[in-house]
Specification:
alpha/beta
């Protein structure tokens, strides 16, 4: 809002016009002419010097069973024209506690995780704070429903785009915007330790999820190159620091890959490494992605592992199966649209 107040002042208007702009944009206004409480002369100046617009809906898949919707959005390139590479996904999910949107933070990803469809197209660029917010506003426009929970678990590594991520969370929290509690926001990282520490200081009320997936350095480095820079000892140490600093339980995402990380020995190692930590393990039956060559372990095995972890005192659940008849893995819709 402060930026828009300064922008209004530069255009010869009172600062409160910037607040009005902010409110209209957060309502999802598609043009300046919709902003009927702004003077006509100001709207004309805005038309000449600025533009607003939500991302373009390129494709959408709807799960008929549970209402999950997967969106493919398009953003303009530097020249303002559509850019076929500038596409991201977000996923709308309905829960008992409200509506949640899984938001992307980058176009593509440079983390290179071996089981992930998001990285297959390579890294294109970071999203701006506004482009992240645009996914929320556009999803509300398409669903005609209010979104009251956000998970930044879509395409990209959020902490690799920290400044824009921070701006996005603050936009969501602004009372004149979505007025969303930080407690209704969760950010997922592949394990960028400096980002975890900064996030704990900047957003102690928000939730943190860490993509774990393996509990040995050799195994994790083989499927998650980020582990070579921030190995497990350092990562789990930062996770403990986070829980101590914020008092919040951390979530470990664990995608079950058949024959890779779902053996009894893997489960015992998880218990050994995580016991005593304020944490929850979210077991994910991996969605098959032909291009990665990995297969999921299946829900039956996931349920067995969850029972074993809970018996050992580590809170664990199997991720609820949403969107089972649409492209389940993040990045698949974007990947298939290019074929």
């Amino acid at each position: 809002m402060d930026e828009l107040k300064a922008f209004a002042t530069e255009m010869g208007e009172k600062p409160f016009r910037g607040k009005q702009l902010f409110v209209w944009i957060n309502r999802g206004a598609g043009s300046f002419q919709e902003m009927t409480d702004l003077p006509k002369s100001f709207r004309e100046k805005l038309e000449e010097t600025a533009y607003i617009g939500l991302p373009q809906l390129l494709d959408m898949q709807v799960d008929k069973a549970d209402g999950t919707r997967k969106f493919l959005w398009g953003f303009p390139g530097p020249d303002g024209e559509p850019d076929e590479e500038a596409t991201v996904e977000s996923v709308f999910m309905k829960y008992k506690y409200g509506n949640s949107l899984c938001v992307s933070s980058q176009i593509g990803c440079r983390m290179g995780c071996g089981f992930c469809a998001s990285a297959l197209g390579g890294f294109v660029r970071n999203l701006t704070s506004g482009e992240m917010l645009g996914q929320v506003l556009a999803a509300e426009r398409e669903t005609k429903q209010t979104i009251n929970h956000i998970v930044v678990m879509g395409m990209g590594e959020p902490f690799d785009n920290y400044d824009a991520l921070s701006g996005f969370l603050k936009l969501l929290h602004d009372p004149a915007g979505k007025n969303m509690s930080y407690r209704n926001m969760t950010v997922s990282t592949s394990g960028l330790v400096p980002g975890i520490r900064k996030f704990a200081a900047d957003f102690p009320q928000a939730g943190l999820a860490i993509s774990l997936h393996r509990l040995t350095d050799e195994g994790r480095s083989a499927i998650m190159p980020v582990n070579r820079r921030y190995p497990l000892t350092e990562l789990l140490g930062a996770a403990r620091e986070y829980t101590q600093a914020t008092g919040r339980r951390i979530t470990f995402e664990y995608a079950l890959i058949r024959g890779e990380n779902d053996s009894d020995q893997d489960v015992q190692l998880m218990i050994q490494k995580l016991r005593g930590m304020l944490c929850h393990v979210n077991l994910i039956p991996l969605n098959d992605v032909k291009e990665t060559g990995f297969k999921g372990s299946g829900r039956a095995r996931a349920n067995q592992i969850a029972e074993e972890l809970n018996r050992s005192g580590i809170s664990a659940t199997v991720r609820r199966e949403l969107g089972s008849d649409i492209d389940g893995a993040c990045g698949q819709l974007r990947l298939h649209s290019k074929k």
